[in-house]
């Protein structure tokens, strides 16, 4: 989010997140009581930013977030105050923090609120030294993990499997959930029941599908329509692992990408357990390691290839999946050098 040019400081602690009713915030909220001390959320449009804030202020919220009408971010000006000639960004009388989030957040917030009775959020200010280098400021804020790009899947009898996250979807679930594979393995149409099960089994589960055949967003939407909590996509090639995106605005569940070898291991594991459940363990930072591997220029001489492989295992081989990829890549380069 971007902070507005006006309003008070952001709250320091987590608070309930509540959608204002009606969502445009252009009249006195119908749910005033539940907005007290909460992070209130309104949509953009139909009236000015400051009019919305004045209406929501009747509830005494902890903060106010505007849902933008597109996926751009900017610092909100108070703009024109209806029937007033005041300087818009001075003396607004708004005594809570105000910010703007992207339109994409609309679906994510609604899906999160539909999925559970209470959603808590924390507005963590970050200080940016450049377009791509931002970090929390205060010590207690640094303990919050605002952005998860990677982690690993854990389960009984399952070797840890590294994943990279999608750039879309709700926060990752923290509890262990069933992992199921549909009978149509690519998930490019409405999901077929898993072997020996029913389509209703997908509700609240992770769905494992193979990459290819259709866009990532279509796979995720089919899983979402079946009630899945998230989608795990097994890569279909030998390229380094990468995060993935969609331009669909109707997909709210999160996605994970695992290597082809790891996905095949998951399928084998599914056949050995009576009830397959996986837990998602966030471990941010692996996306950069995979990007570094993708940018490598391997030498062509055999002796240099082996030394290069050892160096990469030392620098980037702190996960079994990256170790396997580096070794497989070295084998491929050696074969090409010998040809």
UniProtKB/TrEMBL annotation:
SUPFAM superfamilies: PA domain (SSF52025). Residues 20-102, 178-264 form the PA domain. It comes from the Eukaryota. InterPro entries: PA_dom_sf (IPR046450), PA_domain (IPR003137). Keywords: Glycoprotein, Signal. CDD domains: PA_subtilisin_1. It holds the Pfam family PA. This is PA domain-containing protein.
């Amino acid at each position: 989010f971007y902070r507005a040019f006006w309003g008070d400081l952001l709250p320091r602690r987590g608070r309930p997140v509540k959608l204002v009713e009606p969502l445009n915030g252009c009249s006195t909220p119908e749910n005033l009581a539940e907005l007290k001390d909460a992070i209130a959320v309104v949509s953009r449009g139909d009236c000015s930013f400051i009019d919305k804030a004045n209406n929501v202020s009747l509830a005494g919220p902890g903060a106010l977030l505007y849902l933008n009408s597109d996926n751009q971010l900017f610092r909100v000006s108070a703009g024109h105050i209806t029937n007033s000639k005041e300087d818009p960004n001075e003396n607004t009388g708004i005594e809570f923090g105000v910010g703007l989030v992207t339109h994409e957040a609309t679906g994510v917030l609604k899906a999160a609120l539909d999925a559970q009775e209470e959603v808590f959020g924390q507005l963590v200010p970050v200080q940016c030294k450049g377009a791509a280098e931002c970090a929390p400021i205060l010590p207690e804020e640094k303990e919050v993990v605002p952005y998860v790009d990677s982690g690993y899947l854990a389960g009984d009898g399952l070797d840890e499997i590294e994943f990279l996250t999608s750039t879309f979807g709700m926060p990752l679930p923290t509890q262990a959930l069933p992992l199921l594979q549909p009978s149509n393995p690519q998930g490019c149409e409405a999901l077929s029941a898993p072997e020996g099960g029913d389509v209703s089994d997908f509700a609240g589960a992770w769905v494992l599908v193979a990459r290819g055949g259709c866009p990532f967003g279509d796979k995720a939407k089919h899983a979402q329509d079946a009630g899945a909590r998230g989608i795990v996509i097994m890569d279909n090639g030998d390229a380094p692992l990468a995060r993935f995106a969609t331009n669909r605005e109707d997909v709210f569940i999160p996605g994970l990408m695992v290597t082809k070898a790891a996905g095949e291991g998951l399928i084998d594991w599914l056949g050995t357990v009576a009830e397959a459940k996986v837990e998602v363990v966030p471990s941010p930072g692996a996306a950069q390691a995979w990007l570094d591997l993708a940018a490598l220029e391997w030498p062509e001489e055999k002796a240099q290839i082996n030394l290069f492989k050892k160096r990469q295992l030392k620098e980037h081989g702190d996960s079994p999946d990256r170790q396997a990829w580096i070794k497989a890549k070295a084998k491929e380069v050696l074969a090409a050098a010998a040809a």
